[in-house]
Amino acid sequence: MYEHFFQCPYCWEEVSMLMDPSITKQTYVEDCEVCCNPVEVTPHFQENELVAFDANEIGQ
Predict the structure, then answer these.
(1) Which of 41, 25, 31 is nearest to 11 (CA)?
(2) Is the pTM of this model over 0.70?
């Protein structure tokens, strides 16, 4: 598993998320651990390294 820290697009707090680097590109929704709002997360891995990451409000 790969842990990534980022800023929540709703509350602007720094949060962390565990991701599976064996899936090269994925999009899913996970609730912020601080404000509980749904965040659409899109990580992109190459050779088990995170090369791109987006965290957006739902509907944005």
Answers:
(1) 31
(2) yes
